[in-house]
Amino acid sequence: MKNSKNEHAYLDLLQYVMNNGTEKGDRTGTGTISHFGAQLRFNLADGFPLLTTKKVHFKSIVYELLWFLSGSTHVGYLQQHNVRIWNEWATAAQTARFNRAEGDLGPIYGHQWRNYGASKKEDGSYAADGVDQITEVIHQIKINPNSRRLIVSGWNPCEAEQVALPPCHTLFQFFVADNKLSCQLYQRSADLFLGVPFNIASYALLTQMVAQVCDLEVGEFIWTGGDCHIYQNHREQVELQLTRSLYTLPTLTLNPNVKDIFAFTYEDISVDGYESHLAIKAPVAV
């Protein structure tokens, strides 16, 4: 599959922020170069948007998305599969700030997607009386594809301060036209070098999974960023990435027999023909 507009658009945004961003402070104390408001469009028919200018760890993307869809907020599932991307938020020191046991991240993505607005029990856990936004949005896509309310919100202002890291990707909306499913994500805080490549691939994968269970073809994934930033200690790595040539995009393959969004397993999802430059190591801001 070709790789023209897809990855070029992401690289162009990196270059734009490097050249035109504003230097700002941030919660980590590292400092950033930031730009407010940007949009990238990916035609999923052109290939799966997994960056080729640096290797992106697809296994972590898949397991994290399956974890979100399960509704779980404990890192045990990820750790069982050797996925470490949430470990720094799950330490005893981090969770103790919220009177939670080690590994319990509280009302993050999985909770908001599957049990939004749930009431809290006396022991600090949540009752199963919230809104299952994923089930509801898939139901609406099937029965009312022209709806303009095909929305899942990860941002709950009543609970945003109850977690160490409030949701960065805060809202996504589906759109059906010509029997094709598209999705737009709004991301309030966008770490362009480390986080955004994961987010693009994750939501492109989610879009294709939802399309399959709704008997639709895939359209576009549109990524919209709020505070789009490059950490000061990532500048050298970004400059290296911008020198690299593009490879052809891989193809995403899903097990066609899976018709329930919650029935997907890691073995049902694969990318074929993924060729990339080497990964670029960079410090993680926490």
From TrEMBL:
(6R)-5,10-methylene-5,6,7,8-tetrahydrofolate binds at H57, D191, A285. One of its GO terms (biological process) is dTMP biosynthetic process. It catalyses: dUMP + (6R)-5,10-methylene-5,6,7,8-tetrahydrofolate = 7,8-dihydrofolate + dTMP. Its EC number is 2.1.1.45. InterPro entries: Thymidate_synth/dCMP_Mease, Thymidate_synth/dCMP_Mease_dom, Thymidate_synth/dCMP_Mease_sf, Thymidylate_synthase, Thymidylate_synthase_AS. GO terms for cellular component: cytosol. Its main location: cytoplasm. Homodimer. Belongs to the thymidylate synthase family. Bacterial-type ThyA subfamily. This is Thymidylate synthase. It comes from Psychrobacter urativorans.
